[in-house]
Amino acid sequence: MIKMAVFDMAGTTVDENNVVYKTLMRAINERQFDFTLPEVLKEGAGKEKLQAIRSILASRQMVDEVLSLQIFENFKVLLAEAYENLVVTEQPHATQVFAALTRKNISVVLNTGYNRETAERLIEKIGWKEGIHFDCLVTASDVAKNRPDPDMITWAMDKLGIYDPQQVIKVGDSAIDIREGQNAGCRFSIGITTGAHTDEQLAEAHPDFIINDLTELIPIIDSVLQNELT
């Protein structure tokens, strides 16, 4: 039985036109680098944003914690500016899928490498309400360890009273999302091609499924129920 579905936000359920990673790229490149958006997505997608900066710099053999922290502080300022007039929408069919899962008594959890303030601003712009459209939000600032560690998933399980990770599925648009679900022991770790990583990049993390639209999740869940009834 599936009792909880954990969804990444940007690229999976939220469409913010990659503004966070574009801003991350800008903040880094203002320090005399020339990273491209595909490089930033490859190294940083899905990660807590300070860790993303560290990973992006490390891809060019640059390990400098002071520099990373300086870039991170600038990134937060730039992101606040970018959000002022940003149009944020849901990824196709997200609300529809959330409602379908709720009807199946499956809790809907949003999780993200953003801090809580950033995540809540995105959710507010879409118009989703906790307790109506989704059941729980967990962010990088709520836990001690971030992706690929399983802390955000186990935090949400504890909050919702779910104790068996085999009753949980994880859906995300990056390889680190998939590894997070695997490390949590989730029944399925599912990649989706609507965001940061390509089908080929997702496949490198060995997901249980790769989907192209959130609606493809419903027959996967139905097949689990059908197998349990036979």
What does this structure look like?
The chain has 230 residues and is an alpha/beta fold. It has two domains: 4-16 and 88-229, Rossmann fold (3-Layer(aba) Sandwich), CATH 3.40.50.1000; 19-83, Orthogonal Bundle (DNA polymerase, domain 1). The protein contains ten helices and eight strands. It has helices at 19-29, 37-44, 49-58, 65-83, 94-103, 116-126, 151-160, 175-184, 199-203, 217-229; strands at residues 4-8, 14-15, 89-90, 107-112, 136-139, 168-172, 188-192, 209-211. It has a six-stranded parallel sheet. A two-stranded antiparallel sheet has the order 2-3. The mean pLDDT is 93. Keywords: Hydrolase. One of its GO terms (cellular component) is cytosol. Pfam families: HAD_2. This is Phosphonoacetaldehyde hydrolase.
